[in-house]
Give the backbone structure.
Amino acid sequence: MLKNYITIALRNLTRHLGYSFINIIGLTVGMACCVLIGLFIQDEFKVDGFHTKSDRIYRLLRETRLDDGNTDMGYGTSGAAGPALKRDYPEIETVVRYMSWGGIWTKHEDKRFNQQFCLTDPDFLSVFDFELISGNRETALSQPLAVIITQSTAQRFFGDQNPIGKTLSVDDRYMGGDYIITGVLKDIPQQSTLQFDILCATVNTFWTRSVFENWQPNSVWRPANNYILLREGANIKSLEQQMPKFMAQYMGEEILEKNTYFLQPFKRIYLYSKADYDIPFYSDITQIYSFATIGLFILIIACINFTNLATARSARRAREVGLRKVVGAYRSQLIRQFLGESFLLAILAALLALIAVYFSLPNLNDFVEKQIELSGSTLYFTLGSLLTLTLFVGGLAGIYPALFLSNFNPARVLKGTLAAGVRSGRLREVLVVFQFAISAFLIASTYTVYQQLEYVRSKNLGFNKDQIILTNIFSTDRLLNDRYLNIKNEFLQHPNILKASASHSSMGYGGQLDRVFPEGKANEEWKMRVLGVDESFLDTYDIELIAGRNFSLNIATDSTQAFLLNETAVKRLGWKEPLGKKFEWNPEVHGSNGRIVGIVKDFHNRSLHEEIQPVAMAMWQPKFNVLSLKVKGQNTEETIAYIGQVWKRHIPEKAFEYRFLDEQLNDYYQSEQRMGALINIFSGLAIIVASLGLFGLASFTAEVRTKEIGIRKTLGATVPNIVLLLSREFIILVMIANLIAFPLAYWAMQEWLNSFIYRIEIGILIFVVSGIITFTIALLTVSTQAIKAALTNPIDALRYE
Amino acid sequence: MIQLNNIEKYYENGAIKTFVLRQLNLEIQEGEFVSIMGPSGAGKSTLLHILGMLDTPSGGEYHFYDQPVHQLNERQTTELHRDHIGFVFQSYHLIDELTVAENLETPLLYQKVKSNERKGRIAEMLDRFNIVAKKGLFPNQLSGGQQQLIGIARALITNPKLILADEPTGNLNSAEGERIMTHFKHLNAEGVSIIQCTHSEKNAAYGSRIINLVDGWVDADERTSS
C-alpha cells in the first residue's frame, strides 16, 4: 500500500514538474530562510553563555539623573566599588574589575603591533572560562607585571616559539611598561562581549591606581566595569535592594540622590542592554524579533502556496479520489495518502533546504560577521529544526488539501461535474489575500527601512564630512603635540591638502562629557560634552559661527580662557546674551577666567542615535590626539602617500594609519545598515515565493477555465477581454490585501522609527510604492498565464473538454 | 439481493427541488443480468450510483442482502461495496499515473490482500483477459477497448457478487463493444450478477431483464427471452 502511495506521489511529482517546482522551491526557500534565521538567532543567544558560571555573573550599572531631566545609564562604575562589594556582602563570591583600554602599540624586539589591552583583577580567570593553553590558571595574572595574551597575539609576536617568560613592551601614557608573559589563552570566541588581546592585572601607575582604587563619586568618566560573581543560591534581588545603602555609605547621601546602582545579568548584556536599561549596545532583541517574524512570514507564504496549489489542482486528482473510493478506499486512507504526499514534498524540500543552508551559510556569516559552522549544536539545531519544519509544513500545509480532496463524492466526481465546482474556493481567496497582505507589509516595511537609512546617510550634519582624512598622529607620538602648528604646516605644503585641524577627539565620538561651571549656575550641576579643538577646527569642518568670534592664535589667553558654545547649550542655559559670560571647565588647566567668545550653529558631534546635546569647545593643545585633513577630491592616492611620508618623517618606527571621516561615521550605522540589507534580502525572498504561488494558482485557474475561455472566444471575446476576466479576481484580492497590510505596516514602522531620534515621516508615498509593486507583481504573474490562455485557439480549448 | 423501497433522489436549488428519482421500487435477485435503459437525464446513472453506494438517496430504503444500506455510515457502506461490488465506467476511469498491473492491484490493496496473493490474482486477470503484454503500460498507451478490458478486470479482481456498469461500451467502436458484452455474458453465466446502464437496444439484449427508466420512474420492467 505504501509502495502504491509513493509510486503515485512520485509519478505525480515528475508528471507535473512546474507545479512540483513551485511547491518544492517555495518550501525550500521558506525552510532554508527559517533555518538560517534560526541559526543567526541561536548564535545571538549563545553570546556570553559559554562561561559555566555565567548565570551567577552580574555587571554593576550606575544610573545618573541629570539636572536637565535626562537620565544616563552607564556600565562604567567606580573601580573601588568592586573590592568594597566583595568585602561587605558574603553572598558575593568575588568581583573582578575589567577595563578595556583599546588598541595600544606593543613591541617585542623589532615587532610592533597595535593590540587590545585590558586591565582586570587576578581573579578574572576564576570567574570567566576563557581557556588557558599554557600557564597556570591560578597564578598567571597575580604576579606583578604579568600579562596573558591570546594565541593570535602570541603567534604574531613569537611565531612558533614559546612565549611564556618573554617580554612585551607597551607604549602608553597610562599602561606603558615592560610586561612578562605568563600565559596564553585560546583565542577569544566571537560569541563573547569581552574581547581583548592582552590581559593584565597589574595596577602600577598612579593613574591606573586612581581609576581602580578610588571612588571618584562625581567623575563622569568611569572606565572600569565591575563584574560580580554571586555565590550559588544567593538572591540577586535582595542584593540589589541593598545597593542604595552601599552607595550612600561609600559615596554619600548626595550621590545617592541622583544615582542608582543596578545589577545587570551578564548573559543579558549582549541582547537586552537596550531593552532592559536603554544602553545601546552590540545587538538588540527587537532586531531578533523582526528576523523571527520575517522567517515565519516566509514559511507561512510557502505553506499557503502549498495548500492553495493542492486545492486548486484538486480537479486533476478528483477522479483518482473517486476511483479509489469506488474500489473500496476509506476516507481515512485517502487522508493518509494525501498527507503522505505533502510529507514527501516537505521531506524533499527539507533536504534541498539543508543543501541550501550549507552553501549559503558562509555568505550569511560574511554578512553578519559571525562564524557559524554546521557542527555540534548548530548541526543538531539545523537537523532538528528541519525535521520540525517538515512535520509542521507537511501537516499544516497538507491537512486541508487532504481533507478537501478526500471528501469528494465519487458519484459526482466521476460524472465530471465537480471540476467546475472547485474553481473558486473561499479559503483559497482568503489565503491569497493573507499572502499578499504579508508581501505588501514587507514591501512597505523594507521601503521605510531603506528610506530611513538613506535619510540618516544623507542628513545634513551641520558640518562637512566629505574629503576629510583622520590620522592619530598626535596620540601616536605625544611629543608632536607641542609642535602641532608646524606639523599642520608641513601637511599643508601639499597643494591637495587644503585645511588641517588638530583636536582631542574626532567627530562622532564628539568630545568628553564633563562637568562645567557656567556663570550664575553655581548651585547646579552642569555637564556638557567638551570638544578640545584648535583654531582651524570650525574652518576645516565648515561649522557655522553665528555670533562672536572663533579662537585666535593672536590672542594669547584664548588657549586657556576662551570657550565656544553650540546653540543648544545657550538655549539650555537660558542665556539671552551669551557672549562674554563667564565659563569654567577643568580649572586646573584652564583656570577660572574663562569667557564665552563665540556661538556656533548646532552640529551632530555624535551619531544620529543621539539628540544634539549642549557642547562647549575649548583649545586644549595638551590633549590633541587627532589630525583632520581636508583634501581635494582628485589624486587622493597621491595625497595619502604624501601624508604617509610626513608621518614617516616624524614617527619612523610606527606604521602610518588613516581613515576617511565619512567611512568612520558610517560605522555608527553599520549594524543598522547590515540589518536593513538582510531584511531586504529576506523580504525579497518572501515576495518571490508569494509570486511563485500566485503564478501557479493563475495557471491552474486558466486551465480550469479553458472551456469557458473557448466558448467566450467563439462568442467574440477579444484577448484583452479574456485577460481582464482571468486577472480581475486576483487584482481584487491583491487590492484587499493591500488595504489590510497598510495600517499594520504603518503601525509597525512607526514603532520601529520611534527608536530613532532623527527619523522620516511615514508618508502616503510608502503605500503608493508598495501598492504599485504588489500590483505589478500580481499583474505580471497572472497576466502571462491569462494571455497564454486567451491566445489559444478556441476549438482546441473546447476539444480539451 | 437488492431491495429498493420508495427511493427518492432530488437536488435542492434554493426552494426548488429537482427530482432525479421518484418513489422507486425495485427488487433484483442474485444472478440476474439487468439492463437499465432510458433517455438522457432519466436517472440511470444516479440509480446505478445509489445501488453502488457511491451516492446516497434523499429518501427511501435500500437493502443489500440483509443490510439496511440507508442506515449505515460511510465506513460501513465502503466496506460493503468494497467486498461485494465491482464498477465499470463509460470512460474507464483508470488511474493515469499507475500502470495496468498497478491499477489492477489497487482494489486488492484496500482489501488488505497479502502481496503474494495479489501477484497471483493480477497474473490470473491478465491471463484471463489476454493482456499480459500490457501489464507495464500506462492507460494512455492503450486503446479504448483495451482500457475498458482493464476496467472490467479491475472490477472483477476482488471477486465481487455484483458488477455495476455505466454505459460500458459508450466510448467504444462496435467490435470492441461486442467483445466487452460477450465478456459480461460469460461472467453472468459464471454466477456474477450484472446491472448495466445502456442506450443500446443491442447491448441491452445481452441481459435477462430490461428496466426502462423515464423521468425517474420505472416505465417498464420486462424479462427478455435470452
Notes: Chain B is about 35% helix and 30% strand. The longest strand of chain B covers residues 16-28. The domain at 31-56+77-223 of chain B is CATH 3.40.50.300 (Rossmann fold). Residues 12 and 127 of chain B are 47 Å apart (CA to CA).
